[in-house]
Design goal:
alpha/beta; elongated; single chain; six-stranded parallel beta sheet; 14 strands
């Protein structure tokens, strides 16, 4: 079997790692592997199939003698994808740089493999939230033409890369620590109140009252009065008065004032202020706190009030289904889970599809696993499907608000089927159709 030289651009990121895993797991026919990344990751070592590879900084010469370049996403695509093509290398690009270019096919192999035939060197890999949606839409659309799509997404933080995962982990730790400290303080306060109100405290108070009224206590009081009136106590008092008026006392007072204004104290004050500030959540990857929160914003807002992520779902689905006018509306939400995107989909079709027919169509379609048994509370969830390649569908039901509507739930690992796996499947498609070449 023919083997191919493959470059992975962005090999050190979240998608890059999945690309390497996928190339191994799917046994892609590799002659030579070249790992590329930004200057920051240059020199890093990555082990693949028992061999250590050093990551090089991407430059225009990086693609010489390479057959396929898998770009994991990010700004490298804009700078280097066309250079790679000039070197004779077919690019499969996971960024959004070329997705809407009419000269560049956008492909999900289960949906529009035929579009690979007209590539000019670059093939775009769709956005993760679109991929899992179109895989679900295609078999239904083939059976009953889709007239409208309404989708709401629940997207994991790893969609924003390794920094997104780190931010959720750190904020969750910080908030749960603050909560346990608060709980500890509340519990201690409650315990003190309980003790103060208890019989034991009452009996201690009674005993103390009795002791205070006893003859032993009277004796002690008399002894203490004698001591207070004695000559030695008078002398001690006079010494103390002299000492407070002495130079030593003045020196100590001045010393304390100076210390109060000293750098040490200033530093301590600054450190305390800093500690007080680190108690607050400081978002950097996401616009607001993501732990224990939901963010109805992924990517930037556009003029029509939708976010770019929402419009990606619209533009990309229309392009891949070859339905440029298909009405689609999306609401994309970032949720505090590490991995796998979920989507609630509602579609209208030109003829009624029963839930049973839809279930059969979806179960028979490539790349889909249906898990849909409400009686046993069986439906797909992000935590149970992470690290797998299929698109999982459940909660399939007829829409009670319209005659030809269907509602269902779609979950997929967005780093695998939503990114790396789909890119490798495109490469496999090119290999199978002998399309690993730049058309002249
Ligand atoms: C996200 N869809 O989840 C993006 C990643 N491509 O942020």
């Amino acid at each position: 079997m023919k083997k191919y030289s493959v470059a992975v651009v962005g090999a050190t990121g979240a998608v890059g790692a999945e690309l390497l895993k996928g190339l191994d797991e799917r046994d892609f026919p590799i002659k030579e592997l070249r790992l590329l990344a930004s200057e920051r990751s240059q020199g890093k070592k990555i082990e693949w199939r028992g061999k250590e590879y050093e990551v090089s900084e991407t430059n225009i010469d990086s693609f010489k003698d390479m057959d396929i370049a898998l770009f994991a996403g990010g700004s490298a695509s804009t700078v280097f994808a066309k250079e790679a093509v000039k070197s004779g290398c077919v690019v499969i690009d996971n960024s959004s740089a070329f997705r809407y270019d009419p000269e560049v096919p956008l492909i999900v192999p289960e949906v529009n493999p035929e579009d690979a035939a007209w590539h000019n060197g670059i093939i775009a890999n769709p956005n993760c939230s679109t991929i899992q949606m179109v895989v679900a839409l295609k078999p239904l659309h083939d059976a009953a033409v889709i007239k409208r799509v309404v989708v709401s997404t629940y997207q994991a933080v790893s969609g924003a890369g390794i920094d997104g995962i780190k931010e959720l982990r750190e904020q969750t730790t910080q908030i749960t620590r603050q909560e346990s400290y608060k709980e500890f303080k509340d519990n201690a306060r409650d315990a003190a109140d309980i003790i103060a109100d208890s019989d034991l405290a009452d009996s201690i108070r009674t005993q103390a009252g009795k002791v205070a009224q006893s003859s032993a206590a009277d004796n002690i009081r008399e002894q203490m009065a004698k001591v207070a009136a004695s000559k030695s106590v008078r002398e001690l008092r006079e010494q103390l008065i002299k000492l407070t008026q002495s130079d030593i006392a003045r020196d100590i007072k001045e010393g304390l004032e100076k210390f109060g204004k000293s750098e040490v104290v200033n530093e301590m004050k600054e450190n305390l202020a800093h500690l007080a500030k680190t108690d607050k959540i400081k978002p950097s990857c996401f616009p607001y706190q993501i732990a224990f929160n939901l963010l109805p914003q992924i990517d930037i807002f556009l003029e029509n009030g939708y976010t770019k992520e929402e419009m990606k779902m619209v533009w990309e689905t229309q392009k891949m289904l070859h339905l440029p006018k298909l009405p689609i509306t999306a609401t994309c939400v970032r949720v505090p889970i590490y991995r796998s995107h979920s989507e609630a989909l509602n579609i209208e079709t030109d003829r009624k599809l029963s839930a049973d027919e839809a279930r059969r169509l979806l179960a028979a379609a490539p790349g889909i696993i249906v898990i849909d048994n409400p009686a046993e509370k069986e439906y797909p969830m992000p935590a149970m499907i992470a690290d797998t390649d299929a698109v999982y569908i459940g909660r399939i039901r007829e829409d009670i608000s319209c005659k030809k509507g269907l509602t269902f739930w779609v979950v997929a690992d967005q780093l695998r089927k939503g990114a790396a796996t789909n890119a490798i499947q495109i490469a496999e498609l090119l290999v199978a159709k002998d399309l690993v070449k730049i058309p002249q």
